[in-house]
Amino acid sequence: MPVEYTSIMNDLFDFKPKAIRFAVMGNPVEHSRSPDIHREFALQTSINLQYDRIRVDGGFDQAVSHFQASNGAGLNITVPFKVDAWKLCARSGNQLSARADVARAVNTLHFQENGTIYGDNTDGIGLVTDLKQNLGLAMEESSILLIGAGGAVRGVLEPLLECRPARLDLTNRTMSKASDMAELFGEKVTPVTLRETGRRQYDLVINGTSAGLEGQMPELNPHCINSNTLAYDMTYGTQLTPFMEWALDNGSYAVHDGLGMLVEQAAASFYLWHGVHPQTKPVIELISKIHHVRST
Fold first, then answer.
1. Are 225 and 252 in contact, with CB atoms under 8 Å apart?
2. Is the preceding peptide bond at 159 cis, omega within 30 degrees of 0?
3. Within a 10 A sphere around the Cβ of 232, how many other Cβ atoms?
4. Which of 93, 117, 258, 277 is 20–30 Å from 238 (CA)?
5. d(CA 204, CA 220)
6. Strand partners of residue 230
7. What are phi and psi of 276, to 5 degrees?
C-alpha cells in the first residue's frame, strides 16, 4: 500500500541519529527537574538525548529491566529506590563503583553493551561540590549535623567525611537506623537522638530526609543552630521547604535547597554516560529563575 511504502521509505532515508534514552525513576517523581537539567546539558554538548520521568509504584527491578529492554541507556534513581538499585547492581554479573559500594546506595545506572548494569552514586560529589564551589563553604574542621538514614544520606556520608570535618553527627526519627548507619563508619560518625541535637550548635545542618516533599520536617532541637549555622535541605521545590523555614525562624544566617546538589550530581551522571563535563552554574541559575527558591 502507498502509505506503508512511504513510511518505509521515510525510515530508510532518515539519517538523523535517534535520541539516546534516559530517565529518572522514583516515587514521587513528578516534581523532578532532572529532565530540564539534562536537556540543558544536551544543548551545551550537542548530544541528542531523550530524558523522561518514570514513576514506579512497585516492582523496581522489573521497571529497570523494562526500560533497559526498550533501548534505555541509563537511569537516575531517586527516593525510595536507591538501596534497591544498589542491591540490583550488587548481584552477580553487574558492577558497582567504589563509592556506590561504600554508600550501599545507587543513584545512577549505566547499561553496558553486554547487558550488564553499572551502578554509581554521584549524590555525595554533587552535595560537596555545591557546598564548596557554589556556596563557598569551608568544610574542614567544621561541625556537621546530618539528618536521615535513607539511601540519600548513605550516598553523602563518605564524601562529607573526606572533607575532614571536626565532627559529623547523624540523627534520625528511628534511632536504630541512624546507629546502624553510623556503625559502618566507626568513630567518624556519631549517632545522636533528635533531642540530643540541641547539646551543641553546628556550622552546617543538612536535612537528608524526604519529609519536606510531604510538608513535614524532623523534630529537631532548635538549639542546634545559631547565627553561624548554614542550613541545607537536600530536597528542593518552588517554595522554601519546612526545614528551611524552621531554620530561618530559629536564627540560621542562610538556608539553601538541594537544587545545586541536583545539578552537580546530574553533571557527574552525565559524564559517566557521555564522557563530557557540562557546565553547571548556568544551569543552576536558569532552573532557579524558572522553578525554584534556591536560597535566602
1. yes
2. no
3. 28
4. 277
5. 14
6. 204, 254
7. -130, 135
Strand partners, 295: 256
The model's pTM = 0.89
Separation of alpha carbons 265 and 156, rounded Å: 11
Q: Catalytic residue positions?
A: 82
Query: How many other C-beta atoms can be found within 10 angstroms of the C-beta atom of residue 198?
Result: 15
pLDDT in tens, the chain (296 residues): 333 333 334 445 555 678 999 999 999 999 899 999 999 999 999 999 999 999 999 899 999 999 999 999 999 999 899 999 999 999 989 999 999 999 999 999 999 999 999 999 999 999 999 999 999 999 999 999 999 998 889 899 999 999 999 999 999 999 999 999 999 888 999 999 999 999 999 999 999 998 766 667 888 999 999 999 999 999 988 889 999 999 999 999 999 999 999 999 999 999 999 999 999 999 999 998 876 555 55
Cis bond before residue 282 (omega within 30° of 0): no
CA-closest candidate to residue 79, choices 120, 35, 32: 32
Longest dimension (CA), the chain: 79
Q: Do 5 and 251 meet the contact criterion of CB atoms below 8 Å apart?
A: no
Contact (Cβ atoms closer than 8 angstroms) between residue 119 and residue 95: yes
**Grid coordinates standing for 257?**
535547597
Residue 259 sits at the vertex; the CA angle it makes with 257 and 261, to the nearest 5 degrees, is 100
- Range 12-19 contact pairs with CB under 8 angstroms and sequence separation of 24 or more: 17/48, 18/48, 19/48, 19/49, 19/50
| Length of the chain, in residues | 296
Name the packing angle between helices 151-161 and 82-90 (round to 10°).
80
